[in-house]
Every structure is written in C-alpha cells, then in structure tokens.
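Input (Cytitidyltransferase):
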Amino acid sequence: MKETCVLTFGRINPVHRGHGLVFEKAKTLQEQYNADLKIYLSTSTDNIKNPLPPELKMYYTEGFYPSVQENIYTEDNLFDIMRELDGKYLDVLFICGSDRIDSFQKTLDMYNGKLYNFCSIKAIQAGIDRNVSQYSSTQMRNFAKNEDFASFREFLPGNDEDLKIQLFEDVIKYMRK
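Output:
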C-alpha cells in the first residue's frame, strides 16, 4: 500500500492555464511525498456550466497537459473517489483552489471515519489565490458564447493552435445542445 495519494477533482469545463497550476502543485507534492497522483474530472454535463462530456474533457486535458495524462480519471463525485481510495492509502492530500479549501476540508473531515477511513486528509491550496487568478472556466465559456476566440485562446497553454480551435468549437457546440 502506498502511503499517500495526491488528489484533485474538478469540473474542468473547459480546461485552462489555472488548472495547469493545480496540476503543477499536485506533481510537486507527488514527488515530495513519493505519492500516487490522481486527477479526477467530474462526469457532470449540462449545456451551461458543464458543456463538454467527460471523454472530451479528458481528451483536452491530456492534450494540453500531456505530463499528467497517465494520472487522469473520471468520476461522478468526490465521495465515490474517497471510497475508491479507502484501503489503498493512509493519507490524502487534496489539491483545490483557494476559494474551496475550507469547505472541502470540512466536508472531507466530516465523512472520514463514516464513508471512508484515512489517517489524515489535508486540503491544500493550488497556486495563486482564486480572487487574483485571471483564469476561469466560466470566463472561457463566456468567451465561447460571444465567439471571442482571441480571448479564449489566451487562457490555454502551449502552441497547438488546432487543438485550441477544436476546443473552442466544441465548447460552443455543446453549449448549444
């Protein structure tokens, strides 16, 4: 049994540079603790906040962040993830945005010993403060809604313009369904 799992879970709809900060923090902690890394993408879909289906979220996350592609999974909710990890790890380091640390810590602690059993669970801030970060999936969906590719592409890493265009078109397509 590996002692520690570094975990993150999010809608990631669509993926952006801010998620890259989360992945970087998670990779750093993975190395620091000699831990397993698991990046879970929510399977939630709707045409407002979650337009991309899980398989496309995974495709784009892997495409823009190939260094973590072997660590990406999909799951419905955080409780299912925690139950899945129960018995495989002693400790969980949960990486999340600054705006969610307190609520995640409280929720994860509340169910530890009831739905799952870990020696410790710690919510850790990933990167910069959410109030300071310019990156947001909500903003990206707004760019797509307004067909503003120039702004949309600025939120994406790398130089693969075709992948950026493809993501932009898919967000528009699935928001209209």
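The mean pLDDT is 95.
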